[in-house]
Design a protein that fits this description.
heterotrimer, A mainly alpha (about 325), B mainly alpha (about 280), C alpha/beta (about 400), A: about 325 residues, mainly alpha, two-stranded antiparallel ribbon, 14 helices, disordered C terminus, C: alpha/beta, 7-stranded mixed sheet, 6-stranded mixed sheet, about 45% helix, globular, disordered N terminus
Chain lengths: ~325, ~280, ~400
């Protein structure tokens, strides 16, 4: 087996173990943590499509994440719509909003794109905290977000909801794996490597970028909806640019451009957060230091440790 | 009329806050996310100096210099390692820096809020145009104008400016001409940090000095820089004036809409000039 | 004996018939585990530490025990954000915590409250002032022992009347709680014949009030009402002082200043009036004992955050001890109908209809303090009786 294949297998095993273990432990501690990890991992996988594969640094994904959460919350609480339709609606609003943001932001590229997505998302945060407070509950948020009510299973039992999250996560993972391996995925990587040449080869660079953004919006929306239900609560904090920053840290830490890397990145980030915050009040600073080291020395993140450092800045491969 | 003067003070304060960010981007191609954190450090350092010496002016003199030194250190230890790589890595690094600087500040100064009183000389109001205007704000206008003029002279008219611009537009050529590009880069980052900290010192008598203060200004700085065009001092001045005056008008007539007005301005600019009002061609990435 | 047996049997019945989550806590535990989720970083990071000191003293006062078992705190930082609050609280509840204590910001507190309703876990609030936290027939397991914004606004209007102020210009933080606060104030003003000559909404986190302050200076108002707190309040007071606004007009606010905020504002705070949640100078035996203990432990006077935390937790633990059982519903029932005569603020009575403690209201002015008091401190100028501030259930 090649080093890469071996590394990938190990990562798959680790992730599988992480998912399976909570089913067998009686206490709910790991359950809670892994539920959170899987939801953020879904978010990160979608984010990486735009960041790692297509090479666009977006600071606006928090807006998509939060909008998904609010969509579910408002539909379920105000309109008595069921969870599954709500989840689909969350995906759709995430995708639509991504499309809208893309219309503005995709006119520029690179660092300017990053700043622009930051500003646009922050504007949405302000709208949600303020002007739209009748809809969003303002800064205090909306408590009492319900769990699904399906097939007679009590999803208020955290173990059952965890199972639901695992199913959604695996579906999302499978779809992303397919996308990345497909011609669509290859075209995106070509754009990251050299967009002028990609255009010359006949690819519609703008449409492809837009599509990647839209897909990642759907992922973010679903993740946001799942999180709101997990917490029984949603607030504009989910739309704040620091949330975008968090998913960026997780993705880079895990290994941008890889499929499984971001999942590990999320896991490490959340674990570090839990353990470090118990040990010291300066955990965020230590996390920052770790992040800086990872940026300098681990250019492919944790995934890079598993399957060798990749010198190509072309978005890597899955 | 007093609204116009206040608008000017808002504008120059914004400019002082954003100048460092735009400089570092323009000359180094790095978006320094830690800009807000350096601003915060400038304010805390000025507090420390005021505690120890009782003089705001000593703080104004020395605090930015200390932070410039820190900036140089950061550039040498961390940023240099990632220059050869994609711009994104530099941005990520400065992002990680925010977290480190924030907690380091918490470690050194603790959680409680600090305050710097308005310097005695400038603590009273001045009667102008039928209104009472704070003399400190008039100082901000004058100081801000002086700094913008100074920066302009430095970058556009002096030898140093020429070296900096040469090193940023064509580092290889500059090297062959004997310019130590590495030193220039360190210098520019230090200058940008100096300006960020200067913003902090000037803002200190106006706002509470606390750990979240960097976060609260950074968005404004980004907006000024986006509207003005990345890397463009002239653009930053103009954008600061535009934003400051718009805000002053907003506070006068429709305070609930001030935040959204800011973003409307941003979107409006971007619809017509996606790369900012004063962007140079080819400077989009 | 009979009562205890009955309660234990009831607890056992609950064990068999109810959902797993409450089951964990209905039986006797080896320790009394308090999940304390407070802000130790972020905008209100300063407050969490003070609350911790107050809470720890409350526990120390009873020898660290309740119901014959040791009390254990787990302190978690919510970073002044609701998501970490819920995340950490959930984890602690899964580990078997008997109750939640927190948070600081109203948003986090409301989030915890939602969790407390879901999981049927008692929840004690000793600082967040948002009126929404204690609504009529609201969260059944959640209680607040500290001030509400509503009572602070009431006191503000009483202050206006007592000073004979006739025209008020207000600035309001654009946040739902403060907006409602202003609306309440405006209604009271109308009833009292006081004119509101202007009101400006400033975005939360506003750093520059100069235009608004200028408008205020040029108006004919004799009083300035500041419906804002925390950073916004501090920034406003600092900047108002730069044109000596306070010299001509009286600056006040329901939750504008206290010892902590005054220290953060600096000399600009002198002369500002505000509602005060708790103050070390209030003269009663319980408070004197607390202040002495606090000064010995920490070398400083307790802030309002420490005082309220100490008071609320002491009251709650006293009630729990009296029920002599580990049945959560018994605790909740008892607390909802309890009266605390040993409060550091005199006497507090829990209202069963909305789980808010009715209590006296303190109003004060920022003055220079003489050593050993802090440099800038509140002088309590009036103590409003509870009946003036709370209507009956």
């Amino acid at each position: 087996m090649t080093r890469r294949a071996m590394g990938q297998t190990v990562m798959v095993l680790i992730i599988a173990a992480m998912i399976i273990v909570p089913f067998f432990l009686p206490s709910e501690q790991w359950l809670n943590l892994v539920s959170l990890i899987l939801i953020w991992a879904l978010f990160a996988i979608g984010f990486d499509l735009v960041f790692g594969v297509t090479g666009m640094l977006s600071f606006g994904h928090a807006a998509l994440f939060g909008t998904g959460g609010y969509t579910l919350t408002v539909l379920m609480l105000s309109y008595q719509i069921g969870f599954l339709p709500g989840l689909i609606a969350a995906a759709l609003t995430g995708a639509l909003l991504a499309f809208g943001l893309g219309l503005f932001a995709l006119r520029v590229s690179g660092l300017f794109f990053a700043l622009l997505t930051l500003a646009l998302a922050q504007m949405m945060y302000i709208l949600a905290s303020n002007k739209l407070r009748a809809l969003t509950g303002g800064l205090d948020g909306i408590p009492g977000v319900p769990r699904p009510d399906l097939f007679g299973i009590d999803f208020y039992e955290n173990r059952n909801y965890y199972g639901f999250i695992v199913v959604v996560f695996l579906i999302g993972l499978a779809i992303m794996a397919l996308l990345r391996a497909s011609p669509f995925g290859r075209a995106l990587r070509a754009i990251q490597a050299n967009d002028t040449r990609a255009a010359q080869l006949g690819y519609n660079v703008h449409a492809l970028r837009q599509s990647a953004f839209v897909v990642s919006g759907a992922y973010a929306g679903v993740a946001g909806a799942l999180l709101a239900s997990l917490m029984f609560y949603i607030s504009p904090q989910m739309l704040h640019w620091s949330t975008s920053g968090d998913v960026l840290i997780m993705t880079v830490l895990g290994g941008k451009g890889t499929l499984l890397g971001p999942i590990l990145g999320v896991a490490v980030f959340e674990l570090l957060k839990e353990e470090l915050s118990r040990a010291t009040q300066y955990w965020y600073g230590i996390l920052g230091l770790i992040f800086i080291f990872a940026t300098i020395f681990l250019r492919n993140g944790i995934a890079g440790l598993f399957h060798g450092q990749d010198d190509r800045d072309d978005g890597g491969s899955s | 009329m007093s609204t116009i003067i206040i608008g000017l003070s808002l504008s120059f304060l914004l400019f002082l806050l954003s100048a460092g960010l735009t400089l570092i981007f323009g000359m180094l191609g790095v978006i320094n996310f830690a800009h807000g954190a350096l601003y915060m450090l400038g304010a805390y350092t000025s507090f420390q100096i005021v505690q120890m010496t009782g003089s705001f002016w000593l703080g104004l003199l020395f605090a930015p210099v200390i932070i410039a030194g820190l900036g140089a250190l950061i550039e040498i230890l961390a940023l240099k390692q990632v220059y050869s790589r994609d711009h994104i890595f530099q941005l990520l690094l400065t992002f990680g820096l925010i977290l480190v600087i924030d907690d380091a500040t918490k470690l050194i100064w603790g959680l409680d809020y600090k305050q710097v009183p308005t310097p005695d000389f400038l603590s009273g109001p001045v009667s102008l145009f039928g209104s009472q205007i704070s003399s400190y704000r008039l100082f901000v206008i004058g100081f801000g104008a002086a700094v913008s003029f100074g920066l302009f002279v430095l970058l556009d008219r002096s030898k140093w400016g020429m070296i900096i611009r040469a090193a940023s537009s064509d580092p290889d050529m500059a090297r062959t001409l004997g310019i130590d590009v590495n030193r220039v880069r360190t210098g520019v980052f230090a200058l940008g940090s100096y300006l960020a900290a200067l913003g902090g010192v000037i803002a200190a008598p106006l706002v509470p000095i606390e750990l979240g203060m960097g976060f609260s200004v950074i968005i404004d700085c980004f907006i000024v820089v986006i509207i003005g065009g990345l890397g463009n001092i002239r653009g930053a001045i103009f954008a600061s004036l535009l934003l400051g005056m718009t805000r002053a008008a907003g506070y006068t007539y429709a305070t609930e809409w001030v935040e959204l007005l800011t973003f409307a301005l941003l979107i409006g600019t971007l619809m017509f000039r996606p790369a900012g009002l004063f962007s140079y061609k080819g400077r989009t990435a | 004996m009979k009562r205890r047996n009955f309660l234990q049997t009831a607890g056992a019945a609950a064990l068999v018939t109810t959902l797993p989550a409450p089951m964990l806590r209905a039986r006797t535990a080896e320790e009394f585990h308090i999940a304390a989720i407070l802000a130790f970083s972020g905008a209100y990071g300063l407050i969490g530490n003070d609350m911790r000191k107050g809470a720890e003293l409350a526990v120390a006062k009873r020898g660290g025990m309740v119901l014959g078992k040791p009390i254990r705190f787990t302190w978690e930082d919510d970073e002044t954000k609701p998501q970490p609050a819920v995340q950490k609280a959930s984890r602690l509840l899964a580990e078997g915590a008997q109750m939640m204590f927190g948070a600081v910001s109203s948003a986090s507190t409301l989030a915890l409250q939602s969790l407390s309703t879901q999981r049927k876990v008692p929840h004690l609030v000793t600082i967040s002032a948002d009126d929404a936290i204690t609504k009529r027939d609201g969260a059944p397991y959640s209680f607040r022992t500290s001030n509400t914004l509503g009572m602070e606004v009431n006191m503000s209007m009483e202050f206006v009347k007592s000073r004979g102020l006739k025209k008020i210009y207000a600035v309001t933080a654009d946040y739902q709680a403060t907006r409602s606060g202003f609306e309440q104030f405006a209604e009271l003003a109308k009833a009292a014949g006081v004119e509101i000559v202007g009101n400006d909404y400033a975005p939360l986190g506003n750093r520059d009030f100069s235009v608004i302050i200028d408008k205020m200076a040029r108006s004919d108002a004799d009083g300035i009402a500041v419906m804002a707190t925390g950073n916004d309040g501090i920034t406003f007071v600092k900047q108002a002082a730069q044109i000596d606004l306070g010299k001509e007009k009286v600056i006040f606010g329901p939750v504008l200043q206290d010892d902590v905020f005054a220290a953060a504002t600096g000399p600009a705070a002198l002369g500002v009036n505000s509602g005060v949640r708790y103050h070390y100078s209030v003269d009663n035996p319980a408070n004197k004992a607390f202040v002495e203990a606090y000064r010995e432990a920490h070398g400083a006077f307790p802030s309002s955050f420490a005082g309220e935390a100490y008071d609320g937790l002491s009251w709650w633990l006293d009630v729990v001890e009296e029920t002599d059982s580990w049945d959560v519903d018994a605790w909740v029932e008892a607390f909802a109908n309890s009266v605390y005569e040993d409060s550091v603020e005199g006497r507090k009575e829990m209202r069963a209809c909305d789980h808010q403690a009715s209590q006296v209201g303190l109003w004060g002015e920022v003055v220079r303090g003489e050593a050993p008091m802090p440099e800038l401190t509140m002088k309590i100028t009036e103590i409003f009786p509870a009946e003036r501030l709370f209507d009956s259930c």
